[in-house]
């Protein structure tokens, strides 16, 4: 059963079938060949119960929030404002890439959208000022990965729904690791540019007057983050309610930027529909696969297989981490999550690890899949925003940031309180 599941999953994905369809086909195959009961007769009930949840309504709201901000020229103003604060560091504008990605991660919830937004704004600046294309592009791709770590995060909502884990607790757990990872990215950039100054491009110092004047362009994003995430942490709103309020504020910001129009609204809604439909197909397919895996005994068989290796809890955890790193080379992020959660999370619970903590570790490992070839979506997004150059430039530029993620993963395993500190005190 285990080999059928693994080979079936990778084989169907290799055919470039939609991930949601792959999960349904794999479920049917497991039912036909391994289940003693006709599980597909309960398909309707499983699909309905998996999609009939108020929690999932937060997904289209957060997607729409990001779509409105992307199309309202907020990115250009945010990038210029952060440039006045961080471009004095070795690496110059490269730090503005990471800082802007961090800011947008705190509102959009999507890594690909974050990378696309920052790349569109930043790449013309890099070409004009003569920055090293590899490091500059790699920083944008890596910064974009923060979109699924720093709350609000669509991937954390999906993880919380599939594992029945508190989403506010996951949001709290992801905040500190996400910010630390952003600082680690900046530290890596400083180190590289101190060793090889020619890679960093020109730095720029701004007066305190210019820095204070730029705050007016950062206030809308800060305010949106405080309202959306703060209302959840304060217990004033559920994630779904906070997302709905956030959409209203995003439209207000777009109106203030004179970017609100019928064409912009149409594009934002169409983008939201496409993204939400894709996510929901994958989520429902994962729920069906989870049902079939449990009923057919695959999860139990895999647990027995890992137990048979004779590893202690830490050894088994490191095996799981290694599996995620390898699969991340071939499987897209959300697909990797939903395909493995039904199998891995029960094992993690049996080992005695906290589900909230593992959710953050999983998100970090999944983030790596966004910037590791051949399937790293952020690499392709950033490359598409460039004028010329090879795809290998973006891949090489992302390597230092992949190593930074590995360091962060080791820190999370060694010090779980990095993720659990805020949930334990708030």
UniProtKB/TrEMBL annotation:
InterPro entries: DctM (IPR010656), TRAP_DctM (IPR004681)
GO molecular function, one term: transmembrane transporter activity
Locations listed in the record: Cell inner membrane
Oligomer status and interactors: The complex comprises the extracytoplasmic solute receptor protein and the two transmembrane proteins.
Family: Belongs to the TRAP transporter large permease family.
Keywords: Cell inner membrane, Cell membrane, Membrane, Transmembrane, Transmembrane helix, Transport
Segments crossing the lipid bilayer: 12-34, 46-65, 135-158, 170-195, 215-236, 242-265, 277-296, 316-344, 356-381, 401-422
Keyword Membrane applies: yes
Membrane topology: Multi-pass membrane protein
PANTHER family in alphabetical order: C4-DICARBOXYLATE TRAP TRANSPORTER LARGE PERMEASE PROTEIN DCTM (PTHR33362:SF5), SIALIC ACID TRAP TRANSPORTER PERMEASE PROTEIN SIAT-RELATED (PTHR33362)
Protein's organism: Brevirhabdus pacifica
Purpose of the protein: Part of the tripartite ATP-independent periplasmic (TRAP) transport system.
Gene Ontology CC, one term: plasma membrane
Protein name: TRAP transporter large permease protein
């Amino acid at each position: 059963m285990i080999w059928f599941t693994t080979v079936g999953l990778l084989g169907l994905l290799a055919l470039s079938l939609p991930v949601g369809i792959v999960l349904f086909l794999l479920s049917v195959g497991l039912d036909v060949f391994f289940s003693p009961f006709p599980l597909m007769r309960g398909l309707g009930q499983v699909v309905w119960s998996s999609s009939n949840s108020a929690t999932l309504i937060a997904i289209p709201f957060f997607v729409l929030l990001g779509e409105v901000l992307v199309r309202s020229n907020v990115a250009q103003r945010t990038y210029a404002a952060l440039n006045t604060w961080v471009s004095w560091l070795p690496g110059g504008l490269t730090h503005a890439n990471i800082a802007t990605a961090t800011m947008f991660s705190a509102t959009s919830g999507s890594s690909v959208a974050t990378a696309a937004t920052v790349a569109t704004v930043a790449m013309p600046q890099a070409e004009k000022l003569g920055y090293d294309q590899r490091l500059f592009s790699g920083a944008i791709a890596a910064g974009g990965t923060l979109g699924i770590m720093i709350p609000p995060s669509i991937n954390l909502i999906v993880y919380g729904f599939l594992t029945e884990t508190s989403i506010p607790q996951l949001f709290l757990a992801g905040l500190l690791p996400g910010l630390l990872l952003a600082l680690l990215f900046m530290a890596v950039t400083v180190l590289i540019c101190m060793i090889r100054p020619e890679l960093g491009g020109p730095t720029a110092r701004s007066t305190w007057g210019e820095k204070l004047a730029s705050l007016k362009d950062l206030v809308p994003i800060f305010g949106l983050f405080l309202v959306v995430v703060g209302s959840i942490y304060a217990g004033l709103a559920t994630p779904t309610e906070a997302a709905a309020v956030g959409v209203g504020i995003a439209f207000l910001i777009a109106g203030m930027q004179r970017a609100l129009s019928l064409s912009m609204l149409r594009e934002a809604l169409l983008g939201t529909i496409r993204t939400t439909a894709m996510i929901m197909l994958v989520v429902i397919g994962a729920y069906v696969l989870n049902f079939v895996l449990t009923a057919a005994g695959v999860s139990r068989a895999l647990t027995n297989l890992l137990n048979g290796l004779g590893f202690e809890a830490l050894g088994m955890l490191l095996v799981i981490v290694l599996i995620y790193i390898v699969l991340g080379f071939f499987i897209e992020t959300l697909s990797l999550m939903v395909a493995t959660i039904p199998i891995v999370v029960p094992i993690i619970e049996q080992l005695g690890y906290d589900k909230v903590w593992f959710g953050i570790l999983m998100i970090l490992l999944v983030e790596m899949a966004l910037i590791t070839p051949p399937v790293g979506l952020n690499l392709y997004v950033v490359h598409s925003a460039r004028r010329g150059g090879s795809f290998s430039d973006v891949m090489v530029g992302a390597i230092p940031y992949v190593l930074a993620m590995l360091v962060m993963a080791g820190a999370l395993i060694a010090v779980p309180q990095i993720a659990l500190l805020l949930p334990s005190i708030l």
